[in-house]
C-alpha cells in the first residue's frame, strides 16, 4: 500500500449555490460516493443537491495531470424542502440519494425516475420520516432497505407504492449488507446482524459505548469505528461528552463473534475495506491521519497524513478546526476521496497515470447537441430539385456510376420479416435484452429453409386493380350490370391464395375503400365486387361498420332470420318523451335488425348500409364501449377481438331483452343452460350447492397443459417422423392429430372442474371444495366466442384442420355435460338420433380476423365472414366484396394472419326454410299495417293541429301496383371529409352524413296521406333550408311549431309497409332518397322521373324544377322546397310520360327538352 498521494483538491467555491441574492453562500459537503458503473464521483450537499464529477487528463498540461470536471447537478431532496443529502448509493440504472424525508432515484443525467416520500405509499406512510440510512437488500438491487430513528422498512424500486416493515424497533444510524444479512448500526452504539428472510435479529454486538460513526462490510467481515461516552467524575448532571475510540472492531459473520480489533491511537472516525484486498482496511482519524492495516498481520501498517490546513487566501473562519470526513474508496481500489471542514474535496491515488474509478467503466452519455435551424426548401411536383444546389465536393458523386453497372433490385431476395412479438417478449422492464429459449409450441419449427422470392414478384403481388368509375367507361349500356368488367380491370382483387409459399395476405381479404367521384357514390361500381346474384354486401363508410361480418353470419341463419324479421309483424312504436330523450329513433336493436335483414334480402346483389342500426347503437345506454367510428384504425389485434366478441354478447342479450319487453317472449335460439355443482370432498363436510343458469354464447377455453403437451409432440415431430419409424407410437400420434381440433376445446369448455380450499370448515381439518360446471342443454344454434391469446392462436395454426364441418353432440350418461365426436369417427351415423340424446351439428360459418400487420400494431386488421349459403356453397363476405370461396380455403387456418373469432354451428334437423317477405297478399294478412291509417305523433296527438294531408281509409288500402308519389327532405348531421391538394385538387374521403327530416307520400290523385317531420335530438350541422325547407327548431320536440312530429321508426315503418304491400313509388331522384332512408326497393316498384327523362348521350340528369317548367309550364320550388309539391310535380311528370309514351312521342319530346335546356343552360328563367 505504498505510493498513495494527493492528486487533486477541489476548492469550496465550486460548491457555491445558484443563489443570485447571496452568491457567496457555500453548500457544505454532507456525503460522497464513487460510482460503480461509470467514472463519476457523486457529492451531496447541505442544500439538497446531488452533483457529479468525472475525471479526465488535462489536455494543456505537460505532465497530463488528472482533472475533475462537473457533469451534472440536480435537486434530490423533497420539493418543498432543502434537507441535506445524508447518503448516496450507486445503482446500475442510476443514483439513489437519501435526505431526511425522501429518497430520490435519478438517472446519471439527472432525470428523476422515482421519488419516494411518505405520500408515495399506501400503507405505513407515517413511519417514512426522519430517514437516517439506506442500503440494498441482500443480493437484490431493486429492494431498498431504509432505516429511521424508530424502525426499518423496505420498498421495491419497480413498485414504490408498497412499503414493508421489518421487525426492528430501534433507532438506526447506519446500514449495510452482506450476502445473507443486513448489518445495522443502532443509535445506542450496538451492532445488529439481521436476517431479512426470517425477519429476525440473528446476533447483537455491543460495538461502542456511545455511537457508531462508520461501518463497512466486505465478504464475511464487518468493521466499525465510533465514539464512547466520557466518564463523569464530579458533575453527574453535566451533558454527555464523547471521545473517539482508539480501536476498530472487526466481526466475523461465519462464527458470529468479534475477532482481534485493530488499534488506532489517533482515534478512528472512518473505516473502509480495500475492494481488491479484503484483508486490508483503511482507517482515518478526524485530524487527517490515515493507516492501511492488514487485519491478520497488524504489524504491516502504512501511515499517511492528509493536508487539512486552511489556506490563507480563503474567507473561511479561522476558528474552524481541520476535520476529515466522508472517506470513500473507488471500486477498483485506485482512488480515495474525502472532504475537510472547509468543504474542500481531496482526491488521492496510488496510480497517477489512471483516471478510471471502476475496472471497466461504461461510456458517459454526452449532452444532446441541438441542431441549428436549417432553412427548409419546400419541394413539390412543380418545383425542380435543381434549386436546392450542391455543396462543394472533391470526390465523385454516387450518381456518376459507370454505364455498365446495373442495379437489379427486382431480382434481390426479400429480407425475412422480424416477428415483433419476439422482440417484445425479449424486452425486460429496464429495456435490456435477455436470452430465452425458442418455443416451438408458439412459433413452430425453427431454422427451416424458405423458398426464394424476388422483390419483383412481391411487387406484382401487391398490385390490386381498382375498378374505374362508371362515368369513366366508354360504353353504350345504360345499366352497370351490363358492363363488361374485363375491358377495364382484371380480377386480382378476388385472389384468395398467396402466390408461391409466401405468408402474404391474399387480395380478397384486403381492407376495402369506397371511392367517390364528382358524381357521388352512384358512380362507384359496387357490382364489380359482388360475384353473386343473391347475396348483398355491406358498406363500411358508416359508424360501427366492424359489425358487418357478424351481421352477415346471423342473416344466413334461418331460425334467427325468421324470428327477427317475423317480429316486425307486430307493431312496437314507443313515442313518449322519456323514450325519445334516450332513444330518439323510437326503435330497438330487434326492430332495426329485422328491417336490416329484410333489406339485405331485397337488395339481392346490391350493397346495403347499416346506418339505421348504427344510429340506434350509438344512442343505446349499454353500448358506449362498443362504438367505433374509424373502421378499427385505433385498435390492435387483441382489441379488435375483444370488441367483436363483446358486441356479439351484447347483440344476443339485447335480442332476448327486446323480445321480452316488446312481445313477452324468450329468444332462446342460442341459449345454453349450465349447472354449477359445489360439494365438499371431506368425509364430514356438509357443503353442497347446485344452481342453474343460462348464457347466449359459449366462451371457448384452451385445454390444460396435459393436452397441450400432446400438441407439442406433433409440432416437435414432423410428418416424416411417422414415415421413418414404423412402430406403435405412430398410430397414437396420428390419433392425437385427428382428435385435436375444436371438439377438444368444446368438450373442455363445456365441462369445467376445479377445486378450491373450503373456507367455512377449514378450521377443523384442511380439505377442498369441488366445483363442477357443466352445460346441460345445447341450443339449436351454437355460437362460440374464440377470444384466445396470440400464442394460443399460433397453436391452432399448427393443426391440419382445427374446424370440423360436422360433429355429433352426445349427452353423458350422468346427464351432466356433453361429449363430441366427428362424423368420420362414428361407425353407424344413422343410429345417432335426437331421441337417443345425440344431435348433429354443422358449421354455418364464422367471423374471421385478418391481420395485415403485427398483432400489436393499431389499424392493421379487418374482419371478414365465411358463410355457407343455402346449405350449398361457401361465400366470403368482406364488407361489400362478396365472392364464392372453396371449402378448403374456409377450413384452412394454418396462416398466422387468419384468426376465427365467432363460430356458429347449427343443429341440422331444426333449421326451417327462410320465410322471405315476397308475397304482398300474404304480407298484408300477417303483418300489422294499422299505422298507415292513423296518426302516431311523438308525445301523443296534439290538440288543435291542422292536417295538410288526409289519412288513408281501409277502403283505400294499398294493393300491389298501387301508384304513390314520394319525396323526402334531409338535414346534414356531419359535413363531408375532403382531401385538398396544393394544386386545388379535391378528393372526397367520406360524403356528408344526411338524416331523414321530412317524408311526404301522395295518392295517385295527388292527395297526400303521409306528411311526417322526424324528431331529432342530436346536433344538426346544417338544416339545408334552401333545399329541404326545414327551418331551425322544426325537428325539436319542445320548440317545434310543427304538429306532425314522429319518430324515425314510425316514418320508416310506414314506408316499409308500403314497400312490402307492393306499391309503385313515383318520385324524382329516388336513388339518393331510398339510399339515405336505407330502403331497398326493387326496380320494378320504382318510377323515377330523373331516370325516365334522362338521355345518356348528354350524361346530364335534369332537375325537377327545369322539367316542370318545360313539360308542365309551371314554376315550382320558388322559395324553399316543399316535399308535397315536389312529390306532386313528379307524379304529374310521370303521368305526362305515360301519355307521351302511349302516343310514341316521348323520344322526340325528350330531344326537345335537351335542346331547350342547352339554350337555357338547363336553368329556369327568372
From TrEMBL:
Cofactor note: Binds 2 metal cations per subunit in the catalytic exonuclease domain.
Compartments, record wording: Cytoplasm
Segment forming the signal sequence: none
Reaction it catalyzes: Exonucleolytic cleavage of poly(A) to 5'-AMP
SMART domains attached to this UniProt entry: EXOIII (SM00479)
One term of GO molecular function: poly(A)-specific ribonuclease activity
Record-annotated USP domain positions: 536-908
Matches recorded under PANTHER family: DEADENYLATION COMPLEX CATALYTIC SUBUNIT PAN2, PAN2-PAN3 DEADENYLATION COMPLEX CATALYTIC SUBUNIT PAN2
Stated family: Belongs to the peptidase C19 family. PAN2 subfamily.
Role of this protein: Catalytic subunit of the poly(A)-nuclease (PAN) deadenylation complex, one of two cytoplasmic mRNA deadenylases involved in mRNA turnover. PAN specifically shortens poly(A) tails of RNA and the activity is stimulated by poly(A)-binding protein PAB1. PAN deadenylation is followed by rapid degradation of the shortened mRNA tails by the CCR4-NOT complex. Deadenylated mRNAs are then degraded by two alternative mechanisms, namely exosome-mediated 3'-5' exonucleolytic degradation, or deadenlyation-dependent mRNA decaping and subsequent 5'-3' exonucleolytic degradation by XRN1.
Protein name in UniProt: PAN2-PAN3 deadenylation complex catalytic subunit PAN2
Taxon lineage: Eukaryota, Fungi, Dikarya, Ascomycota, Saccharomycotina
Gene responsible for this protein: PAN2
Amino acid at each position: 500500500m505504498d505510493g498513495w498521494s494527493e492528486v487533486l483538491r477541489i476548492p469550496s467555491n465550486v460548491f457555491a449555490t445558484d443563489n443570485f441574492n447571496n452568491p457567496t453562500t457555500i453548500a457544505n459537503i454532507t456525503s460522497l460516493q464513487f460510482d460503480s458503473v461509470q467514472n463519476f464521483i457523486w457529492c451531496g450537499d447541505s442544500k439538497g443537491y446531488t452533483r457529479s464529477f468525472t475525471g479526465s487528463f488535462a489536455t494543456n498540461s505537460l505532465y497530463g495531470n488528472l482533472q475533475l470536471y462537473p457533469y451534472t447537478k440536480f435537486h434530490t431532496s423533497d420539493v418543498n424542502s432543502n434537507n441535506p443529502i445524508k447518503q448516496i448509493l450507486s445503482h446500475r440504472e442510476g443514483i439513489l440519494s437519501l435526505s431526511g424525508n425522501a429518497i430520490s432515484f435519478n438517472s446519471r443525467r439527472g432525470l428523476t425516475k422515482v421519488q419516494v416520500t411518505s405520500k408515495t405509499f399506501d400503507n405505513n406512510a407515517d413511519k417514512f420520516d426522519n430517514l437516517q440510512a439506506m442500503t440494498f437488500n441482500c443480493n437484490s438491487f431493486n429492494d431498498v432497505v431504509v432505516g429511521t430513528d424508530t424502525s426499518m422498512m423496505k420498498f421495491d424500486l419497480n413498485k414504490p407504492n408498497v412499503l414493508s416493515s421489518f421487525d426492528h424497533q430501534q433507532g438506526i444510524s447506519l446500514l449495510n449488507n452482506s450476502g445473507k444479512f443486513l448489518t445495522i448500526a443502532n443509535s445506542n452504539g450496538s451492532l445488529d446482524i439481521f436476517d431479512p428472510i426470517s425477519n429476525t435479529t440473528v446476533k447483537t454486538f455491543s460495538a461502542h459505548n456511545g455511537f457508531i460513526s462508520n461501518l463497512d462490510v466486505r465478504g464475511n467481515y464487518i468493521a466499525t469505528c465510533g465514539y464512547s461516552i466520557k466518564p463523569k467524575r464530579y458533575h453527574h448532571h453535566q451533558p454527555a461528552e464523547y471521545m473517539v475510540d482508539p480501536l476498530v472492531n472487526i466481526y466475523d459473520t461465519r462464527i458470529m463473534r468479534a475477532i482481534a480489533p485493530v488499534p488506532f491511537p489517533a482515534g478512528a472516525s472512518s473505516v473502509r475495506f480495500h475492494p481488491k484486498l479484503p484483508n486490508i482496511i483503511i482507517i482515518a482519524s478526524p485530524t487527517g491521519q490515515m493507516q492501511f492495516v492488514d487485519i491478520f498481520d497488524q504489524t504491516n501498517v502504512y501511515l499517511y497524513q492528509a493536508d487539512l490546513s486552511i489556506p490563507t487566501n480563503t474567507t473561511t473562519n479561522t476558528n474552524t478546526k481541520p476535520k476529515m470526513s466522508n472517506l470513500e474508496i473507488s471500486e477498483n481500489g485506485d482512488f480515495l476521496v474525502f472532504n475537510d471542514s472547509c468543504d474542500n474535496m481531496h482526491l488521492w491515488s496510488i496510480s497517477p497515470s489512471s483516471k478510471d474509478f471502476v475496472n471497466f467503466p461504461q461510456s458517459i452519455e454526452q449532452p444532446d447537441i441541438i441542431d441549428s435551424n436549417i432553412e427548409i426548401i419546400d419541394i413539390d411536383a412543380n418545383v425542380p430539385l435543381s434549386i436546392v444546389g450542391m455543396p462543394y465536393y472533391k470526390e465523385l458523386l454516387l450518381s456518376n456510376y459507370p454505364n455498365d453497372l446495373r442495379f437489379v433490385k427486382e431480382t434481390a431476395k426479400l429480407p425475412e420479416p422480424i416477428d415483433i412479438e419476439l422482440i417484445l417478449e425479449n424486452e425486460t422492464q429496464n429495456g435490456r435484452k435477455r436470452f430465452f429459449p425458442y418455443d416451438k409450441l408458439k412459433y413452430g419449427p425453427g431454422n427451416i429453409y424458405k423458398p426464394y422470392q424476388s422483390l419483383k414478384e412481391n411487387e406484382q403481388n401487391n398490385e390490386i386493380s381498382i375498378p374505374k368509375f362508371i362515368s369513366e367507361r366508354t360504353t353504350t349500356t345504360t345499366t352497370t350490370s351490363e358492363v363488361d368488367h374485363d375491358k377495364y380491370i382484371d380480377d386480382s382483387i378476388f385472389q384468395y391464395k398467396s402466390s408461391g409459399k409466401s405468408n402474404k395476405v391474399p387480395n380478397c381479404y384486403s381492407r376495402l375503400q369506397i371511392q367517390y367521384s364528382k358524381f357521388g357514390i352512384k358512380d362507384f361500381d359496387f357490382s364489380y365486387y359482388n360475384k353473386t346474384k343473391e347475396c348483398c354486401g355491406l358498406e363500411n363508410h358508416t359508424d360501427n361498420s366492424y359489425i358487418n361480418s357478424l351481421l352477415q353470419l346471423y342473416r344466413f341463419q334461418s331460425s334467427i332470420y325468421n324470428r327477427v324479421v317475423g317480429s316486425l309483424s307486430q307493431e312496437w312504436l314507443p313515442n313518449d318523451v322519456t323514450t325519445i330523450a334516450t332513444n330518439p329513433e323510437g326503435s330497438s336493436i330487434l326492430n332495426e335488425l329485422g328491417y336490416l335483414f329484410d333489406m339485405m334480402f331485397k337488395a339481392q346483389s346490391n350493397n346495403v348500409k347499416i346506418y339505421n342500426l348504427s344510429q340506434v347503437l350509438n344512442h343505446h345506454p349499454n353500448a358506449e364501449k362498443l362504438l367505433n367510428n374509424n373502421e378499427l384504425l385505433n385498435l390492435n389485434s387483441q382489441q379488435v377481438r375483444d370488441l367483436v366478441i363483446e358486441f356479439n354478447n351484447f347483440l344476443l342479450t339485447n335480442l332476448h331483452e327486446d323480445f321480452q319487453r316488446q312481445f313477452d317472449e324468450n329468444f332462446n335460439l342460442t341459449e345454453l343452460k349450465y349447472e354449477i355443482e359445489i360439494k365438499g370432498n371431506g368425509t364430514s363436510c356438509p357443503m353442497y350447492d347446485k344452481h342453474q343458469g343460462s348464457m347466449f354464447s359459449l366462451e371457448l377455453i384452451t385445454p390444460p397443459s396435459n393436452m397441450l403437451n400432446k400438441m407439442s409432440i406433433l409440432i416437435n415431430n414432423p410428418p416424416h417422423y411417422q414415415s421413418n419409424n414404423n412402430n406403435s407410437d405412430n398410430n397414437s400420434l396420428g390419433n392425437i392429430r385427428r382428435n385435436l381440433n375444436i371438439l377438444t376445446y368444446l368438450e373442455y369448455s363445456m365441462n369445467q372442474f376445479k377445486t378450491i380450499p373450503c373456507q367455512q370448515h377449514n378450521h377443523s381439518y384442511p380439505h377442498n371444495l369441488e366445483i363442477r360446471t357443466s352445460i346441460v342443454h345445447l341450443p339449436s344454434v351454437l355460437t362460440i366466442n374464440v377470444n384466445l391469446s396470440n400464442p394460443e392462436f399460433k397453436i391452432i395454426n399448427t393443426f391440419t384442420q382445427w374446424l370440423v364441418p360436422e360433429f355429433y353432440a352426445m349427452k353423458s350418461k350422468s346427464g351432466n355435460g356433453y361429449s363430441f365426436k366427428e362424423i368420420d369417427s362414428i361407425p353407424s351415423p344413422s343410429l345417432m338420433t335426437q331421441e337417443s340424446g345425440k344431435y348433429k351439428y354443422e358449421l354455418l360459418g364464422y367471423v374471421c380476423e385478418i391481420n395485415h400487420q403485427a398483432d400489436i400494431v393499431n389499424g392493421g386488421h379487418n374482419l371478414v365472414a365465411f358463410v355457407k349459403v343455402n346449405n350449398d356453397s361457401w361465400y366470403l363476405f368482406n364488407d361489400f366484396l362478396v365472392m364464392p370461396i372453396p371449402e378448403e380455403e374456409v377450413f384452412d387456418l394454418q396462416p398466422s394472419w387468419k384468426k376465427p373469432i365467432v363460430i356458429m354451428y347449427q343443429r341440422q334437423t331444426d333449421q326451417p326454410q327462410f320465410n322471405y317477405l315476397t308475397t304482398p297478399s300474404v304480407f298484408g294478412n300477417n303483418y300489422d299495417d294499422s299505422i298507415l291509417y292513423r296518426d302516431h305523433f311523438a308525445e301523443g296527438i296534439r290538440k288543435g293541429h291542422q292536417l295538410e294531408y288526409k289519412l288513408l281509409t281501409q277502403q283505400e288500402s294499398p294493393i300491389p301496383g298501387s301508384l304513390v308519389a314520394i319525396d323526402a327532405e334531409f338535414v346534414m348531421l356531419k359535413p363531408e371529409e375532403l382531401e385538398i391538394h396544393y394544386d386545388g385538387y379535391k378528393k372526397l374521403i367520406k360524403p356528408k352524413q344526411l338524416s331523414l327530416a321530412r317524408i311526404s307520400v301522395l295518392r295517385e290523385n295527388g292527395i297526400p296521406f303521409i306528411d311526417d317531420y322526424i324528431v331529432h335530438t342530436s346536433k344538426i350541422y346544417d338544416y339545408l333550408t334552401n333545399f329541404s325547407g326545414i327551418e331551425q327548431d322544426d325537428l325539436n320536440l319542445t320548440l317545434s311549431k310543427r304538429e306532425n312530429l314522429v319518430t324515425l321508426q314510425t316514418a320508416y315503418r310506414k314506408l316499409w309497409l308500403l314497400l312490402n304491400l307492393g306499391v309503385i313509388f313515383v318520385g324524382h331522384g329516388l336513388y339518393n332518397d331510398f339510399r339515405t332512408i336505407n330502403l331497398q326497393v326493387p326496380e320494378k316498384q320504382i318510377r323515377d322521373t330523373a331516370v325516365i327523362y334522362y338521355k345518356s348521350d348528354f350524361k346530364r340528369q335534369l332537375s325537377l324544377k327545369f322539367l316542370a317548367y318545360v313539360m308542365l309550364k309551371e314554376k315550382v320550388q320558388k322559395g324553399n322546397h316543399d316535399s308535397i309539391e315536389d312529390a306532386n310535380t313528379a307524379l304529374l311528370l310521370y303521368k305526362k310520360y305515360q301519355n307521351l309514351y302511349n302516343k310514341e312521342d316521348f323520344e322526340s319530346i325528350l330531344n326537345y327538352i335537351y335542346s331547350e335546356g342547352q339554350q337555357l343552360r338547363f336553368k329556369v328563367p327568372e
